[in-house]
């Protein structure tokens, strides 16, 4: 998660919403990603999707069996769907995103569980640098609000 | 929708699941896409996402305000999320996807409605070549099953 957080800080440096993700296979990081929506003019360029696409390219397979995803924030609807489609084994995220509420609202819904296949979202407070993952975003938006004021 | 269906047949020619999509702005098609997951080793390369990324690149904006998306099949969790994030005004799809059931299960859920913002999914039978959109996929999988048997 520390590595995902490092990615998030790269996003902050480029003035994108600071979210980072890494994809792990056999205990090794095979791909990294941070939010690049504005830089790439790409609404799908969330950290998780950027990392996912890199990992699939690397493995030359659109199915990422036996891979784990670490993301600083609870994935949104699009990212959760993408991670499920890619057959990611488990997603570990740092902090919950109350606005998206994907974990609570979507993935626990009975019928959607089928869709999510082997997808399990885990967000444990202390273990996954939860506070750091949340704070980097909070501080980012706080600064933007201050600049606007 | 006829144009989206044309895209779907391109996917079929490349032996990908035959789904197609187009993005429309000011009554003009600004981007087209068909399923390229296998060809690109990219789990996110669904028709809708391919078209969405092209459209955003063209408009040099990750927000596709005042754009409409036409897809041959009901979008999956990932695509629905992506279209919502991109602020697509309306999605018109040809045939329902009973397996994904995104429309019924996700977008009608109260809390998720907020997420979907101005996203409205419409699938009207006769008007949107529904049978053709469904049949191209059915025939594709039927052939695959026959080849395996």
Automatic annotation (TrEMBL), chains A, B:
Could you tell me what reaction this enzyme catalyses? adenosine(34) in tRNA + H2O + H(+) = inosine(34) in tRNA + NH4(+)
* Record carries keyword tRNA processing: yes
> What does the note under cofactor report?
Binds 1 zinc ion per subunit.
- UniProt superkingdom: Bacteria
**GO MF annotations in UniProt:** tRNA-specific adenosine-34 deaminase activity; zinc ion binding
User: Which cofactor is recorded for it?
Assistant: Zn(2+)
Enzyme Commission number(s): 3.5.4.33
**Binding residue positions for Zn(2+):** 46, 76, 79
Q: Which UniProt keywords apply?
A: Hydrolase, Metal-binding, tRNA processing, Zinc
Pfam families associated with the record:
MafB19-deam
Domain CMP/dCMP-type deaminase intervals: 1-123
Catalytic residues? 48 (proton donor)
Biological process terms in GO annotation: tRNA wobble adenosine to inosine editing
Query: Could you confirm whether the keyword Lipoprotein appears in this record?
Result: no
Q: Which family does this protein fall into?
A: Belongs to the cytidine and deoxycytidylate deaminase family. ADAT2 subfamily.
Q: Describe the function of this protein.
A: Catalyzes the deamination of adenosine to inosine at the wobble position 34 of tRNA(Arg2).
- Subunit details for this protein? Homodimer.
Q: What is this protein called?
A: tRNA-specific adenosine deaminase
Annotated gene: tadA
